[in-house]
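Shipment paperwork, digital attachment
Item: protein structure file
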Amino acid sequence: MAEFGAQLARNGYLIMCLYVMLGGLLTKQSWKKTGRSMIRVALGVILLTLGGEVIMKSLVSLTYVFQRGFSVIGILSSNERLLAYTDNQFGGILYGIMLIGMTTNVLFARYTKYKYIFLAGHQVLFMSGALSALAMYFKLPGIVGILLAGVLLGGMMTVLPHVLQPYTKQLTGKRDMAVAHFSSIGFLLCAWLGKLFKKEDSPKALPKASGGLMDDNIVSTAVFMTGIFLVSTFLAERAYVEDITGGTYYLLFALEQGLTFTGGVYIVINGVRLIIQEIMPIFQQVAKRFVPNAIPALDVSVLFVYQRSRLMIGFIGAVAGGVFAMFFLGARSVWVIIPSSAVFFFSGAAAGLYGYSTGGKLGGFTAALLFGFGLGVLPILTMQVLTDLGFYRVVFPEFDFQILAGLAMAIMKIFQMLGFAA
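Attachment content:
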């Protein structure tokens, strides 16, 4: 049963299908319509997953040539690797925290003014892994650690979408949808920072096409990413690139990977569209019965559908900030954090959008630049905890993971002082 629960938690499409089926039953929807919605939602999640895998594969290739080209080696920042470690060593605690967190989120949404239901399951898994590691580091008794970390997780799942909502509405133009992500504090700081800059245009008004090559956001993404690959492969040297690719000509490798990355983005956007089209009506019906006025909080990639033409502002800024952080730390003879390229794209792009919502293009770029710098520096705060647990040369990457882990560490230290933990 525990293994089944773990498998279910890892397969987001099953959770979403069960949710749709439950919604259909509760709203007395026909089986034909419910089945159609389940298939479309499953396809949307699968597309989202496949697109993410395509992007990840391309970004892994970029990481190899980027590190080689810029001569940097350090601590890998990876959600997935840390999740694999914590799942292997603390799996029971991890999934216990996840279950308590999701239950707490629903209860808070039902009985408080914060009506947000956190629907980004992968983010919940990542944070559950982070909190399970902290619980083990402070030697909290099993049930105490699960309950304490689970309630903390549920509180974050409820409150974080709320603090971002004013700026999310500016980006999407919708009041009935929020963003679920554990970089929310970082996004909020980006929105505040954006206010320091003059806002030259409206976040909801897309520029008119002039017929130029870069008016198509998919084409502009392909051009930019191919350029990034070309520079990185050139600096990494032809012999190295052709060696790791099995003999592929290095310039063709750069072209292929730039286009592959863009194809992944296109898949993700269409997967998100399918999910939104099916889950929103059902969610609204279920919420009316159990959580009046509930608002679904979806993965940050939902923003990409509404602000496609401005994604690269944040990505470019975050990459620049991350590179600066690597050289900044390297010059001081300390560990160099190699941030995840995927986090640069998904979180960095979103950080730029939130900065853009209040400060236009300059505000968005500057906010993403500092956000990227934070991605490259803040993981040092929790590196010792993970090293002591045997997790070598790897850290959690997300901005909020560091801030919230610091808060969790402070809370757990208080419990230690009170004698509730060894």
